[in-house]
Specification:
Blueprint: H1 2-33, H2 44-80, H3 95-100, H4 108-116, H5 146-149
């Protein structure tokens, strides 16, 4: 019964977090779409500062979107009755872990194993990343010119 009470508390925590993330993500995306920070500037240093601010906002929005997806997945698992069950070994995830990370889908042992295996443990998603190419001949060496990578901030 104590576990069920804890799961009900966690459900409330997840719903509150989802609401908060949706609100914050909406405000950040609204700011980015309005071009906050992209106003005409007087010098290159100010333009670079504004550009880096937008980049940080974009990265923060991306992280919050990922967390929101995890929270929504946890809420779906609650509805399905699989919340709190490890996706790796099927054992119950301790409530103390769920309190710390409510959208966790792995017990500590399976999480450690996944991290030790680079996130792809026990045949889940094994892939030979050395064979990934950009469509060009993988045997040819490309010469990269640093000038090709620079960004024109004057626009």
């Amino acid at each position: 019964m104590a576990r069920n009470d804890a799961l009900l508390r966690l459900h409330k925590t997840l719903v509150n977090r989802r609401t908060e993330l949706r609100k914050r993500l909406g405000m950040e995306l609204d700011d980015l779409s309005r071009g906050k920070g992209s106003r005409a500037t007087g010098d290159a240093a100010e333009a670079a500062f504004n550009s880096s601010g937008e980049e940080i906002s974009t990265q923060l929005a991306e992280l919050e979107a990922k967390e929101l997806a995890q929270v929504e997945r946890a809420l779906r698992r609650l509805k399905q009755g699989t919340y709190g069950k490890c996706e790796g070994c099927g054992t119950k995830i301790p409530v103390i872990r769920l309190n710390a990370l409510p959208y966790s889908t792995f017990c500590i042992a399976c999480q450690r194993e996944m991290e030790a295996d680079g996130g792809w443990g026990q045949g889940r998603g094994d892939f030979d990343w050395t064979r990934v190419t950009d469509g060009r001949d993988p045997m040819s060496e490309r010469e990269v010119n640093i000038a090709d990578l620079e960004i024109d901030l004057s626009k």
